[in-house]
Design a protein that fits this description.
38% of the residues lie in helices and 22% in strands. By secondary structure, it is an alpha/beta fold. The protein has a single domain (2-217), classed as Rossmann fold. The structure holds adenosine-5'-triphosphate (ATP) and magnesium ion (MG).
């Protein structure tokens, strides 16, 4: 069971004088229960890729298949857009979160709403009756994400879910995504690579609409040239370890989390002494 993009190409305004080719022959697989993160410089085609995977745009060439079906069935793929909080519209948080699952005809909407709010770290009892317009930015983002989680789709596409949040808001959103990831196929687009690389299954680096790298996060961390080629800055933690290597510290692998990096640096230093 997987969401699969095969040789996906796309141009905005195809067939006109202002045609803008954005994606070229992109291949991608997201299995259920797998989290894949997509990184790339601004304009590299990340949001376009998500819209194609959600069936909101038609590919110019290639196809998106979900669980072997050529057409996207309703309720299979949920998408959280960039700055989703700007789309909150209902009078209460509960009504907003209930909109998607109610449209899909989910039988236990109240339970789905409460579960989704709790999953993003918002106490359903305290937040359900609030107006979405009285929420802080971080709370509103989480409500918007809850609205998509409540649809319980087997695949979830998230566009910059942590952008612009403080560390508390980021942690809450990351925890919600991780909790969902056990039984959902997730594709996350992000500029905050360091938040995701330690725990996601795979990473894809897009550069000008092409896949420059696909593989394990640890493998990408070993390739500073690839980051540069994709127009991306190496995460500081990864950069620090490469600099230590250049200065002669023996580091067989590059760690992606702070604890691992500290251990590797300490071990490498002890060995080199
Ligand atoms: N509706 C549109 N019509 C024409 N061109 C578009 C449209 N939407 C996006 N583009 C162009 O397509 C390219 C890819 O845009 P996209 O939004 O997919 O990039 P992105 O990787 O998500 O960037 P960011 O990190 O800034 O969100 C850009 O050059 C953009 O200007
Ligand atoms: Mg984008």
């Amino acid at each position: 069971m997987a969401l699969i993009a095969r040789s996906l190409s796309f141009a905005y305004d195809e067939g006109t004088s202002v045609a803008t080719p954005v994606l070229a022959a992109v291949n991608l697989t997201v299995e259920r229960g797998e989290t894949v993160v997509c990184v790339g410089a601004t304009g590299s085609g990340k949001s376009t890729l998500l819209r194609l995977c959600a069936g909101l745009l038609e590919p110019t060439a290639g196809e998106v298949a979900v669980d072997d079906a050529p057409a996207l069935a309703r309720g299979t793929v949920g998408i959280v857009f960039q700055n989703p909080e700007s789309q909150l519209f209902a009078e209460t948080v509960a009504a907003d979160v209930a909109f998607g699952p109610r449209n899909l005809g989910i039988p236990d909407v109240e339970v789905a709403v409460a579960d989704a709010l709790n999953a993003v770290g918002l106490d359903a009892a305290a937040f359900s009756d609030r107006s979405p317009f009285t929420l802080s930015g971080g709370e509103a983002r989480r409500v918007a994400i809850a609205g998509v989680l409540a649809m319980r789709t087997p695949y979830l596409l998230l566009d910059e879910p942590t952008a612009g949040l403080d560390s508390h808001g980021r942690r809450a959103v990351l925890e919600a995504i991780r909790r969902t990831s056990a039984h959902t196929g997730i594709l996350v687009v992000t500029h905050d690579a360091e938040e995701f690389l330690p725990w996601v299954d795979r990473v894809i680096a897009l550069h000008e609409g092409r896949v420059l790298f696909e593989g394990a996060p640890a493998a990408l961390a070993e390739e500073p040239a690839l980051w540069a080629g994709a127009g991306l800055a190496l995460p500081q933690l990864v950069l620090a370890q490469h600099l230590a290597r250049q200065r002669g510290v023996h580091m067989p692998t590059i760690a992606l989390d702070v604890e691992g990096a500290a251990r590797a640096l300490a071990a490498g230093k002890a060995e080199g002494q």
